Amino acid sequence: MSKLDTAPAPDAPPDRRKAPRAKRRPGDLAFSGTSLGAGIIILLVLAATAVFLIGQSIPAFTTDPEDNHLLGGASFWSYAFPLLFGTLWSSLLALVIATPVAIGIALFISHYAPRRLAAVLGYVIDLLAAVPSVVFGLWGMQFFSGFLTPFYAWLNSTVGQVPVLEWFFGGQPSPTGRTILTAALVLAVMILPIMTAICREVFLQTPKLHEEAALALGATRWEMVRMAVLPFARGGMVSGAMLGLGRALGETMAVTMVLSGSPIVAVQLLQSGNPLSIAANIAQDFPEAHGTGVNTLIATGLILFIVTFIVNAIARWLVNRRAEFSGAN
């Protein structure tokens, strides 16, 4: 038999031996198992929370409003809508106040401050996240509200006379200073650390070649930031703002201690009558609630759960989109 008869056919696939699988060490198995178990536990806890809220909320929708001492004969949505408005209104005010401050601090730390000062400022900002909310509530109730009272009187006498702005700053200002604006300022201080940390990390990820190219073309430092840093970090800034909004939506103690609100719909920022948030309303009414009143409060908690879940889902989607964009470039 000739060598041509024994040679493999030209179209025959080559004899590829399977590569040996890497031996998995016990530490790798333990780490992967622990990570998988932690992820499953988080999903189970989230699902159990959703099932509990939905199950306990059903009586609030099916029971006659006349038998519910919290509703007082009114429908559930007429009771829940002012609370939802107060939650969104105070959180949006806090977001509007905190966003430019967080971006400014993050830019100063990442591109303007000396290295030692930037490290100290970053450490101080991160420490704000560890302060309990009850401390912010005591500070806002005992000191900050009284400190802002003269400023509120000045706003009411000047800005409150402008035709459009009088909707927000008009009326009789509160003599105690415990208004929705004070609660929003306290919330802004509370969400500042997470927004600043995210913006700072995104600013530091800006490609150095983009910054150096802008400076080489004669741009000033601010022009370089405006042309190279801010466009690159747009998605990260939006995601940081959304995460801060999610943090503000669920805040309970600070709003409860600062704001003496009621379930009303009002956009005035300086008056004594202020809308109340869902979390603060639950904290105030739950000790005295009974029967279907407990189910009503849980139903409002379900609404807050859904709103917070939507906000955090949008923020996570923006973060992932930003990461994919950065990886492609």
Automatic annotation (TrEMBL):
<dbReference type="GO" id="GO:0005315">
    <property type="term" value="F:phosphate transmembrane transporter activity"/>
</dbReference>
<dbReference type="InterPro" id="IPR011864">
    <property type="entry name" value="Phosphate_PstC"/>
</dbReference>
<dbReference type="InterPro" id="IPR051124">
    <property type="entry name" value="Phosphate_Transport_Permease"/>
</dbReference>
<feature type="transmembrane region" description="Helical">
    <location>
        <begin position="297"/>
        <end position="319"/>
    </location>
</feature>
<feature type="domain" description="ABC transmembrane type-1">
    <location>
        <begin position="84"/>
        <end position="315"/>
    </location>
</feature>
<dbReference type="InterPro" id="IPR000515">
    <property type="entry name" value="MetI-like"/>
</dbReference>
<comment type="similarity">
    <text>Belongs to the binding-protein-dependent transport system permease family. CysTW subfamily.</text>
</comment>
<feature type="transmembrane region" description="Helical">
    <location>
        <begin position="181"/>
        <end position="204"/>
    </location>
</feature>
<dbReference type="GO" id="GO:0005886">
    <property type="term" value="C:plasma membrane"/>
</dbReference>
<dbReference type="Pfam" id="PF00528">
    <property type="entry name" value="BPD_transp_1"/>
</dbReference>
<keyword id="KW-1003">Cell membrane</keyword>
<comment type="function">
    <text>Part of the binding-protein-dependent transport system for phosphate; probably responsible for the translocation of the substrate across the membrane.</text>
</comment>
<feature type="transmembrane region" description="Helical">
    <location>
        <begin position="224"/>
        <end position="245"/>
    </location>
</feature>
<keyword id="KW-0813">Transport</keyword>
<keyword id="KW-0472">Membrane</keyword>
<keyword id="KW-0812">Transmembrane</keyword>
<dbReference type="GO" id="GO:0006817">
    <property type="term" value="P:phosphate ion transport"/>
</dbReference>
<feature type="transmembrane region" description="Helical">
    <location>
        <begin position="120"/>
        <end position="139"/>
    </location>
</feature>
<feature type="transmembrane region" description="Helical">
    <location>
        <begin position="29"/>
        <end position="56"/>
    </location>
</feature>
<dbReference type="InterPro" id="IPR035906">
    <property type="entry name" value="MetI-like_sf"/>
</dbReference>
<keyword id="KW-0592">Phosphate transport</keyword>
<feature type="region of interest" description="Disordered">
    <location>
        <begin position="1"/>
        <end position="26"/>
    </location>
</feature>
<feature type="transmembrane region" description="Helical">
    <location>
        <begin position="76"/>
        <end position="108"/>
    </location>
</feature>
<keyword id="KW-1133">Transmembrane helix</keyword>
<protein>
    <recommendedName>
        <fullName>Phosphate transport system permease protein</fullName>
    </recommendedName>
</protein>
